[in-house]
Amino acid sequence: MENEWIVSDYSLDENKLLKNESIFNVSNGYIGIRGNFEEKYPEKYKTIRGTYINAFYEDTPITYGEKAYAFPDSMQKIVNVIDSQDIDIIIDGQKLSIFQGTLKDFSRKLDMKKGCYIREIWWVSPSGKELKIKISRLASLDHLELFVIHYDIEKVNFDEEIIIESSISGDVENFIDDNDPRVGTGHAKILSVNSITLEDEIMQIVSQTKNAKNIVAVTTKHVCSSTYECIFEKTDKKAKSIFTIKPGKKVINFIKYNIYTDSLRHADVVSIGEEKAKSISKIPFEMLVKTQEEHLSEFWNLADIDIEGDEKLRQGLKYNLYQLFQAVGRDDRSNITAKGLSGEGYEGHYFWDTEIYILPFFILCYPKLAKGLLRYRYNILGLARQRALEMGHKKGAAYPWRTIIGKECSSYFPAGTAQYHINGDIAYSYIQYYLATGDLDFIKEFGLEVIFETARIWIEIGHFDKGLFKIDAVTGPDEYTAIVNNNYYTNVMAKFNLKWASKLYDEFRNKDSEFIRELSKRINIEEKEVRLFEKAYKNMYLPYDEELKINPQDDSFLHKAIWDFENTPSENYPLLLNYHPLTIYRYQVLKQADTVLAHFLVEDEVEFNIIKNSYDYYEKITTHDSSLSCAAYSIMASKVGYTDLAYKYFIETARLDLDDTHGNTKDGIHTANMGGTWMSIVYGFAGLRIKEDYISLSPKLPEVWEQLKFGFLYKGNHIKVSMKKDKTEIINEGDSRINLRVNSILYEVSRGKKIQVQN
Ligand code: BGC
C-alpha cells in the first residue's frame, strides 16, 4: 500500500479477479464501469463484465406461483449496457494476454485524489517483444456521459508495427444467480442492438430494452499519437476499429473516448452522442485528469476525515467516501443504488439505505448532492400515491421498498412491501436536511408534500386501541422478523413523521397561510386531518418491557425462543441462505439493527438506561448478516460508553469491501455500509446529533487513535473538529454564529471562533 489515497493490487490471484472488478470500478453517478480487463481474461476465469447507467432499466415480469391482490406484476432492473471496454494489442499476430508470455511487472491502482484507475503492465510476448503499458481510465465528473480509456504503450526492445483493435459490443448480458436473493434472477438477455454505424472514424451502437423500450447508445472516437492506418469492421452486434500503428515511435498514446447517452435523459441519443464524441475527444486526456482532480479536491476539502492511527483504516475510510461520491446520482431521476454502479447486486434498486445510511453524509458534507437525492423522492411521489391506493389505502403515499422509477419492485412482501418504515425514513431525512441546513425554501418546495403524504399512511394503517395509537402487520428493518404488530422502530419513526407533519403545518399556517391554502387545494390537507396526526403521535404506542427495562422489537418478539447460536455452524451464516424464512421468523434473532437503530435516530424518546439495556439485549442476538448492521451498533456502542466495542464494529464497516468480509463484493460494493463508516465516526466517536436548535457533539476518541479531524457544514458554515485524547477543538470557519453543544454545555460559536473543551 503506497499511501491511503491509493488502493492498489499487485496480484493476479484468480480468486480476487471478480471482487477486484467491483473494487476498481470507475463511476460518476451516471455511468459506472467495472474494473474488467480491456483484453479480457482467459475463458476459464469467471468475469462479470459490466457497464451500468444509473436508473437505466428494463421492466421484467414477475412470475408468482400464487399471486395475490396488489402484488407487483413487474419490476425494474438495472441493465448491463453496451460494452466499450474492449481493446486488444496484437504483436506478431499474437494478442496480448498477461496470463500468457512473461509478466515482469503488474499493478492496478485507484487514485482517489485524481479520480483515475490505472493498470500497469510490463510484459514480454511469447516471441520476446517487450512492452510497458499504462492504462488509465476515468468516468468523468465534468462530462457525465464520458468513459475514457488512455493507453500509454512503450515498445521496449523492438520497433515493428503493432496492431490495436478497439471494439464496442452490444453482445451483453446481465448477471444472474437464482440461488442468491441478493442478486438478479430471471432473464440475462435484456438489450438488443438496433443499429451499428461507422462514420468519420466514429463508431456507434444503439441498443434497446425489450419491454421498457429504453434506448442506450455508445459513441466512440479514438485519438492516437502515432501514424496509423485504420480499418473498420462490424458484425450484427459489434463494431471494431483496427489500427495498424506504424514503426518509428517508441511511445504510443492511444485514447478511446466513449460517450454514453440514454433515452431517459437525452432527446436524441444518436446525434447528442455524436456531437459529444466529436467535441469531448478534442480535450486532451491530461486535461480531463486535471479537471477530475479539481472536482475531487472540492469534495475532499469538505468530506475528508483524518485519523492519526492505522493507515489501512484511513484508506478504507477514504475508499468508502470516494465510492459514495462516485456512485451518487447527479440528476433528479436517479438515486444511489445499494451497490453503487459497481455491480448488479440488488438489481440497481434504491432502498431506505439512502435516507438512513447515506444521506446523513451528503447532508453534512455535500448538501448539493443531498438535495438531488431528496428531490428524487419528491419526483416519485405520484407513483407512491398510486401504490397507496393499490394497497387499499384511501389516501397518502406508500413509498416502494425497492425501486428504480418509483414502482414497487419487491416480490417478497414480508421483507419488502411490509417495510412501511421507509415512509418514515424518507420524512426523517427531509427533516434532517432542514435542521442541518435551515433551508426552509427547499422544504416548502419539495418536502412538505412528501411529509404530509407519508404521514397520512400511518393513519391509514394504524388505529386507536384503548386510547393508544397502534400499527399492526408491518416489518421493521430487521428482516429476520416479519409482519408483526407495533414494531418499535416503525412506531417511533411514524411518531416523528406525524409530529413534524403537524408542526410544519402549524408553522406554515402562521407564517405563510397563502401557501397552506394553495397546498390544501392541491392535496386536500385540512386542519382536522392535522389534528388527527397530532392525536396519533401524542398517543403513539411504543412497546416497553417492565421486567427487562428494554423496548421490545415488537409485541410478540420477547415471547419467542432465542435462536440456538451455540449450535449454528459458522458456515450457516448468513442465515437467509441456509434456512427457510419461517424457521428464522420463529426465533429471537436479528439480521440487523432495529430497535438499536431507532434509539440512535430518535434518541430523545426514551431514557438512557433503556437505550443501554436494549443495546445489551439485542447485541447478543444480532447476526449482522446485513451489511447495514455494524455501523448502527458502532454508533450506539459509542453512545452507551463501549468505545472498544464501537471501534470493533467500526473496523467491520471500514474495510468491508476492500477485504471482502461479506464474501459478496463481486456483486458490487455496499454503499449503505460505506455511509455507515462515516456515521460510526461522526455520529459515533464524535457523538454528533442534529437537534432542533443546535448541533451537538459528545466526543469519545478510541484508545488506539491519537487524533481525529473532520469537518461538516452546519447552516452553511464550515465547522472543523479536531479531537485528541484530552481535548476537542472546534472552529467555525463560516460567516454566521452557530449554537453548538459539547457534552452538556451550550456554546455560541461565531465566525472564526475556536472553542476548546476538555474531554
Ligand atoms: C437489508 C436491507 C437493505 C438491503 C439493501 C438487505 O440485506 O436487510 O435493510 O435495505 O439489503 O441494502
TrEMBL record:
Glycoside hydrolase family 65 C-terminal domain: residues covered: 688-743
An MF annotation (GO) of this entry: glycosyltransferase activity
A biological process from GO: carbohydrate metabolic process
UniProt keyword annotation of Glycosyltransferase present: yes
Residues annotated as binding substrate: W352, D353, K591, Q592
UniProt-annotated catalytic positions: E479
Record-annotated Glycoside hydrolase family 65 N-terminal domain positions: 12-257
Protein origin, superkingdom: Bacteria
Keywords from the UniProt entry: Glycosyltransferase, Hydrolase, Transferase
Domain annotation Glycoside hydrolase family 65 central catalytic: ranges: 318-679
Family: Belongs to the glycosyl hydrolase 65 family.
Protein name as catalogued: Family 65 glycosyl hydrolase
Species, as recorded: Clostridium manihotivorum
